[in-house]
Amino acid sequence: MNSNLTPYQLDEIAWKHLSTLPYFRGMLRAVEHSLYARLELRAPILDIGAGDGNFADALGTGSHSLGIDPWYEPIREAAALGVYRLLVQAQGAALPVGDASFPCAISNSVLEHIMDVQPVLAEISRALTPDGVFYFAVPNHRFRTELWGCMVLRKLGLRGAAKRYSVLFNKIARHYNLDAPEVWTERLKRAGFAEVEHWNYFPLWAMRILERGHAAGLPNLLWKKLFGKWVLFPSRKNPFLRYKRLRPLLDEPFCEDGTCTFFAARKRA
């Protein structure tokens, strides 16, 4: 993975996301953007879980990507942005593409939301050319066990409540696959990927800011409903954006206690 991003480039990446999203979402997307920006993504790209198109817009990959998403509303929003070369509403387990059609596939914070993910991995493998690479990012097992709320409740001796809190938080987040890298590696091997590398990122303290931000970010939801944007006053001096606190996450994104994992899986040649 190429690490030759300048401080200016990292500043711009951080600001793209923190100025347009609630800070707790923006900081995670900024880190993930910086990971993809360190790679050589060969076109055309198969983008699984295109969503509203904002991530591809920030990353700059949409113009040479096929965006896939199962939901109509996000597809409509992405189409309005005009980011993708082509958008298709389809299920990941039934991709409307031919065999060996793409040298590269990406999926950002999507696979954790798919209950039966193995058929999706198999379809992505089918769509990739021999030696093609699939890059994706997902939260890992620490999102289940290391949440701030769980930590507080365990310290109070309320272990049962801590487990219920974890279940509730991840149910609200629609997380189905919060698994260790070894579990994902086994899934990928079964789907036809020969080489799998992974790196953990997004440390515990950042995950806990994200967790608490779901409540603190309620005003952002109001701004979005009333004014059509998440952030009303995009300034690096705005203390509510936490730019100075969060920007260093991009300098050295990988860490042992990372609560998310980034994968590079190469299909058998």
List the helices and strands and how they pair.
Layout: H1 7-18, H2 23-37, E1 45-48, H3 54-59, E2 65-69, H4 72-81, E3 86-89, E4 102-108, H5 118-127, E5 128-139, H6 142-145, H7 148-155, H8 159-172, H9 181-190, E6 193-201, H10 204-216, H11 218-227, H12 243-246, E7 260-267
Parallel strand pairs: 1-2, 1-4, 2-3, 4-5
Antiparallel strand pairs: 5-7, 6-7
Helix pairs in contact: 1-2, 2-10, 7-8
Task: Summarize this structure briefly.
With 269 residues, the protein is an alpha/beta fold.
Helix content: 40-55%
CATH topology: Rossmann fold
**What would you call the shape?**
globular
User: Which residues sit in consecutive blocks of at least 5 with pLDDT less than 50?
Assistant: none
Instruction: Supply the helix-strand structural class.
Output: alpha/beta
The number of helical elements comes to 12
Q: What is the gyration radius calculated from CA atoms?
A: 18 Å
Number of domains: 1
Report the order of strands and helices. HHEHEHEEHEHHHHEHHHE
Reading off the top of the CATH hierarchy, the class is best stated as: Alpha Beta
Distance between the termini: 20 Å
Beta-strand level of the residues, as a percent range?
A: 15-25%
Mean pLDDT: 90
CATH architecture: 3-Layer(aba) Sandwich
Number of strands: 7
In the sheet with the most strands, the strands line up as 3-2-1-4-5-7-6
Question: What would CATH call the homologous superfamily?
Answer: Vaccinia Virus protein VP39
The largest sheet is:
7 strands, mixed
